[in-house]
């Protein structure tokens, strides 16, 4: 059998497995996401963005927008094979990759026109009604390259859009962002061999339609490597790890009107924050309020496309849950409530945003909460955790997941002290999200029971109370020079620019998040450089303004010999609602400060992120000038960011409504001078 034929045979076997996994479960048991995985270092896919009825939102069957993904047909077809009846494409697909793999995707746009896009009504943006789209591999440390003569493909580049040729074309007054492709676009994403193993995701990232396309279902999961790459390196723990099933949970939500149509321009006030009506059980959904905007419909919150499924934890040893937030706007305050006691059960946090957590062995609960960006409601781990663990385990009772966040948890039946406990035959719990208020000018997200969880059995005699987390898979992040050496050839495509200068020693960047000056209810970002004393550098200030795709806000040159450029950033939110800061192509540490011996000492947390909540201001500030005058008190977030990937990408708030309204900026990273 030829190599090419063998490769296609392997892909056919994987595709057959995908079809079997895609069939709906016989009962309400949570089904694992269907998987497509690479062969011989390559995963070559056809990705068709198209409409598809959602059959799991009973009694409704609205039309969602889905990624129909299959191995790329050898005959050049741009249609995947027909699916079995009842296939749940809305739930999403998982792409399984390994460090060093190449991911190729041929994206085809077969989406319908958008009926309710707020921004498609704005002058210069009427083309948004035709529903152009693109792809972003969120959280991955890969190149955002442009096509070249040698390789006519895009990397993880959001400045390209694919139009559906069956929809109306742009007109002469439209302001188009980036490259425009008709029908399809080819992506080729090379994953460095030193890329960390972890949990990532893919989603549409078309400016002006991010909210609409995510609300309709355009997202999926990407995994690199396996949890064993960063867990349990000692023999006993390693053997125990092999007994733990691994689940992937993709959280999505969609608002369905009484007319059986998804409200793609979703609104926070669709449901009451708490149930107030008879029959509003809040099991996987909430009743829409009568009248506009919901028209008495229902807001569905699904796991892998299923509404209030049953998750059976069949072994006393528990399971590893890898959770991805695919919501456009909703923040989830996740907890696992013991149905018998009504108390939240302890869970061990293993990884955040695709990176294993490695807190210092002496970190306090308060420090653990700070280094996790207030996302983890850290609680003491069981008292008798062996002292041989290299890093302090991170335990939580609740986890706050703003849009785009990911978390990996060890979930098992535990007693009130957090210790593993026999489950018996009737132990149950509820996976839920509590209602979340994001500030006095923010949104109020409803409380929803997401899944019913049953526990059975007793943990094995040699079960550890906590799993050991190793940093082996994260070595490239602790020492990013390893990663930058692999990216040198790709970075060389982005030539040095004379006006792209490094920060002076001791300087850092300040990013403002807020409304446009004058109290206009539109979002934007501002900027200034700070000197070594924390004072604004004259001539660097840019007032808060909406996204300008044609002009980068700042440029970062890589270090000599393509070494990483490490910068300090301060994120200041002057608005009255929380935001979720995200930057592409890198990870960052959160910095905290303590006063020791009369001087300020900075600490780097043992948790790396690609997004972090930025708390709202206390008081009313309608501009940066009012903030400087003391009209409001802000709670700045301090970051340390190692830049290793050259190219043009973005930083923004990852709340869909906010990024579409303009809370995004273009950043340019360039190779060092030869």
Please give a quick description of this structure:
With 674 residues, this protein is mainly beta.
Task: Explain the overall architecture.
By secondary structure, this protein is mainly beta. The radius of gyration is 24 Å and the shape is globular.
- Poorly predicted tracts of residues: 1-27, 594-603
Number of strands: 41
Which secondary-structure class do the elements indicate? mainly beta
Average pLDDT rating: 89
Radius of gyration: 24 Å
Largest sheet: 14 strands, mixed
Strand composition percent: 35-45%
Molecular shape:
globular
Tally of separate helices = 9
The end-to-end span amounts to 47 Å
Proportion of residues in helical segments: under 10%
What is this structure's SSE topology?
Elements: H1 3-22, E1 35-37, E2 42-53, E3 63-71, E4 94-97, E5 102-109, E6 136-138, E7 160-163, E8 179-182, E9 184-190, E10 198-203, H2 210-215, E11 219-224, H3 235-241, E12 246-256, E13 285-287, E14 298-303, E15 306-307, E16 310-313, E17 319-325, E18 332-338, E19 347-352, E20 355-356, H4 365-371, E21 376-379, E22 394-401, E23 406-411, E24 427-434, E25 436-437, E26 444-445, E27 448-455, H5 475-478, H6 481-486, H7 488-491, E28 508-516, E29 520-530, E30 542-545, E31 554-557, E32 565-573, E33 579-583, E34 588-596, E35 599-609, E36 611-614, E37 618-619, H8 624-628, E38 632-633, E39 637-643, E40 647-653, H9 656-661, E41 664-670
Parallel strand pairs: 1-4, 2-5, 4-11, 7-8, 12-17, 16-27, 28-32, 31-41
Antiparallel strand pairs: 2-3, 5-9, 6-10, 10-11, 12-14, 13-14, 14-15, 17-23, 18-22, 18-24, 19-20, 19-22, 19-23, 21-22, 24-27, 25-26, 28-29, 29-30, 32-39, 33-36, 33-40, 34-35, 34-39, 37-38, 40-41
